[in-house]
Write a structure and sequence with these properties.
A two-stranded antiparallel ribbon has the order 1-2. With 305 residues, it is an all-alpha fold. The longest helix is centred in the middle third of the chain and has 32 residues. Helix content is 79%, strand content 2%. It has one domain: A middle domain of Talin 1 (Up-down Bundle).
């Protein structure tokens, strides 16, 4: 157990360093194209930090534990909203948005949550539904990139080193998160926790670590829009890509307890996310509220052990 704990801790340190370089270079590259910080967060940063969820889900299908996919997606989305935003608001004291997330992006996020719930209520994800997910994701990307360019932003020049930092930083986030997940999973198995609870809590937390550290790093640097955009974009990517792509590799198991509690809870927390952004700021007390809900979610999961 000591070895696995050490692996998780060392990986977390690498994750912190890699995420800082990743966000720094992503912002500079995005600004060079006249893209606002929010859109940088909702696309480049969000999808980069969601790669661990996709990797873990694909691996679970090949290993014969496909129930981890839905647990990973739902658990990660809940963790992103409650833990990531909660911690970010507490660390940054206040998250101030200079971008109206309710214009397009928040409705699209809420729509993705409801679509996920409606399509999985029957305990099965069909091929057509998976294709629909990818089409919706493609539409979201097109809208974000083409509909939100800001020509008034001061454009910066990009050097080859910036691109190298983006690639290496993203790779570092991916590898560090992978080993951190490995350490967390092995420790949880030694303690004797079921795969479903592991996927909804420990795996979800492990794969959400990039979002946690990137969003907190963004908040510390005063890049609040990137922090919120990261959560919003990551959840859309999880609901669509991380569910759809593994389904093409094998049948996905959808546990009943996920459909009955975790999935509706995810939709409710997505609506709460929308509610706290109506004022275009998220204060530390709202952050505390989000963390309180996360504590309830964990307690509910472990009460079934």
């Amino acid at each position: 157990m000591l070895t696995y704990t050490l692996i998780a801790v060392v990986s977390l340190v690498v994750l912190l360093y890699s995420s800082d370089k990743f966000i720094e270079s992503a912002e500079k590259i995005g600004l060079s194209f006249g893209i606002s910080p929010f859109i940088i967060g909702v696309t480049i940063v969000a999808f980069g930090t969601s790669l661990p969820e996709l990797a873990a889900s694909i691996a679970s299908v090949y290993s014969g534990t496909s129930e981890i996919v839905i647990g990973n997606v739902v658990g990660s989305n809940i963790t992103n909203i409650l833990l990531v935003l909660g911690l970010t608001a507490m660390v940054g004291k206040k998250i101030v948005l200079d971008f109206d997330v309710w214009d397009v992006d928040m409705p699209l996020l809420i729509g993705s949550a409801f679509l996920l719930m409606f399509t999985l209520t029957d305990g099965h994800l069909s091929f057509i539904e998976s294709i629909l997910y990818l089409v919706a994701l493609f539409g979201f990307l097109i809208n974000s990139v083409t509909g939100n360019a800001d020509n008034d932003l001061e454009k910066t020049s990009v050097e080859l080193m910036d691109v190298a930092k983006l690639v290496l930083g993203g790779f570092g986030v991916f590898i560090a998160a992978k080993y951190c997940i490995f350490g967390i999973e092995e420790v949880s198995k030694l303690v004797g926790i079921s795969p479903e609870v592991i996927s909804l809590t420990f795996v979800a937390l492990g794969t959400s670590l990039p979002e946690v550290v990137v969003s907190m790093a963004a908040a510390k640097r005063g890049k609040h829009a990137i922090a919120v955009g990261n959560v919003l974009g990551s959840n859309i990517f999880n609901s669509y890509a991380v569910m759809a792509i593994p389904s093409f590799l094998g049948e996905l198991a959808i546990p009943e307890n996920v459909i009955s509690f975790s999935l509706p809870f995810m939709v409710a927390m997505t609506l709460l996310f929308g509610a706290v952004t109506l004022s275009k700021k998220i204060g530390k007390w709202e952050g505390l509220l989000l963390l309180t809900f996360y504590g309830f979610y964990l307690a509910e999961q472990f009460s079934s052990l």
